[in-house]
Design goal:
Layout: E1 5-8, E2 11-14, H1 19-36, E3 50-57, H2 64-87, E4 93-100, H3 105-117, E5 122-124, H4 129-142, E6 145-148, E7 163-165, H5 170-183, E8 188-194, H6 197-212, E9 216-217, E10 221-223, H7 230-244, E11 253-258, H8 263-270, E12 280-282, H9 297-305, E13 310-313, H10 320-334, H11 341-358, H12 365-378, E14 380-381, E15 384-385, E16 398-405, E17 412-420, E18 425-428
Parallel strand pairs: 3-4, 3-5, 5-6, 6-7, 8-9, 8-10, 8-11, 11-12
Antiparallel strand pairs: 1-2, 13-16, 14-15, 16-17, 17-18
């Protein structure tokens, strides 16, 4: 199939928009990264002909929906990348070794050790921040490179370690949340927080920004994700609301819930307390586009009525012709809207393979890390610019605000707003 394309820095534009041709856009993006490097015969680089890449994702547990989307995206990217490599005459071929973290930090470390025992040194994942934190010391000690499509806890934004992340750290999401709360004239928040490295870090970042503005943050209602009691959490939130609403108008008060998919159970439990229906609710990136909420009619209806919005990292809007065809292909396979981390997973496969192929000593972890940073600084993936900051986290950030809509017989996730950190601009649709 002939494809007309041209390079219009920093993007590739084509005259086609079908899903099949859209997949080729990502191939050309990868190709241009190679061409942008110093001239020379890149096929002369000595690399192992069969590269095993670990994929450490939550196939089960509270982030299973994300894991499902990511697995499909990784396979799609791998097939495209291998097809491209074969078309160039390269003998390099990659394969994925997939391990389930079960959304559990201990299991994530166990599975990382299993990958190491199988000779895998390059890993996409872990996705959850608590899992990444649990795995990081082992990766540093054993010379394994972790490229996470989803972890964002600020506590593991550490310069010169072996963890790189294709989403920004939690400070960026906190700024997006602050902008939305300002827009909605919210002055008091009651947080319900998953008590782990992600939830604790996220509420700390949000609290710091809100307090600086003179807003009030009630002491968080913490919960252990391994022993969730949604009914108790909802009852505690209702009690907090009773005392808070005695001091402030309901229009200025909100529940801010930092959860994974278990947030669906909390929302369902909240329907049993009239106090919970008196204020706005806000969620987090780990719940946005989760498959669990739209299929729970009680929870979804409550989220819709309370106008709950959840910020999710957003691909660059200027790169829509790159990521939209991939998103459509994922939707066709999943039968639902994929989480945005599926798109960062797609980029992770291409970026890691590009850095590996370009590195003069790809089996030397320090040289490979240097090459990864260099390639990322020039790379424009399907989600936009992939450049890292000094801690190895994504430098440029935008967020979509997702909420529940009911356009027909079924509930669906729908984007209601957009925020760009570079400009501080919030747009509500």
């Amino acid at each position: 199939m002939p494809i007309n394309f041209k390079r219009t820095h920093p993007m590739i534009r084509t005259k086609c928009s079908s899903p099949q041709r859209g997949l080729f856009l990502a191939l050309f993006a990868f190709c241009l990264v190679l061409l942008a490097s110093a001239c020379g015969d890149k096929d002369a680089v000595v690399v192992a002909p069969n590269l095993k890449i670990g994929l450490l994702l939550p196939a089960t547990g509270t982030a299973a929906s994300t894991g499902e989307s990511a697995a499909v995206a990784a396979q799609l990217a791998l097939q495209s990348a291998n097809d491209y490599l074969a078309s160039t005459g390269s003998n390099l071929k990659a394969e994925l070794v997939i391990k389930d973290t079960e959304t559990n930090p201990d299991k994530a470390l166990e599975q990382l050790k299993a990958l190491y025992a199988e000779g895998v040194r390059l890993v996409i994942g872990p996705y959850a921040s608590a899992n990444a934190a649990a795995a990081l010391d082992f990766a540093n000690q054993q010379g394994m490179l972790l490229l996470s499509p989803g972890s964002q806890a600020g506590s593991i934004a550490i310069p010169d370690d072996n963890l790189f992340r294709l989403v920004p750290s939690d400070g960026s999401q906190a700024a997006a949340v602050e902008a939305l709360l300002d827009h909605d004239s919210i002055e008091v928040i009651i947080p319900i927080v998953r008590d782990d490295v992600w939830g604790d870090g996220m509420i700390a970042a949000v609290t710091q920004l809100l307090v600086q503005e003179g807003k009030t943050v009630i002491d968080p209602i913490l919960y252990d994700p391994t022993s969730l009691d949604a009914s108790s959490l909802a009852a505690t939130a209702a009690s907090e609301l009773t005392s808070t609403l005695a001091q402030y108008p309901a229009s200025q008060v909100a529940i801010y819930m930092l959860s994974y998919a278990e947030g669906t159970d909390i929302l369902e439990a909240a329907t049993q307390h009239s106090e919970c229906a008196q204020v706005r609710w806000y969620g987090s990136s780990a719940l946005a586009n989760s498959s669990s909420l739209p299929i729970n009619s009680l929870a979804a209806d409550f989220a819709k009525q309370q106008q709950m919005l959840c910020p999710g990292f957003a691909p660059d809007q200027a790169a829509t012709d790159l990521w939209k065809p991939i998103e459509q292909a994922l939707f066709a396979q999943l039968g639902r809207q994929p989480e945005v981390l599926a798109l960062t997973t797609y980029d992770a496969v291409w970026l890691l393979l590009s850095a590996y192929r370009e590195s003069p000593e790809p089996l030397d972890i320090e040289q490979l890390k240097d090459k990864l940073v260099q390639v990322a600084s020039q790379y424009y993936g399907i989600t936009g610019r992939l450049a890292f900051d000094s801690a190895g986290d994504r430098k440029f950030a935008a967020f979509e605000f997702w909420g529940i809509a009911e356009p027909g017989a079924n509930y669906v996730w729908k984007a209601f707003g957009h925020y760009t950190n570079a400009t501080g601009q919030l747009i509500i649709y």
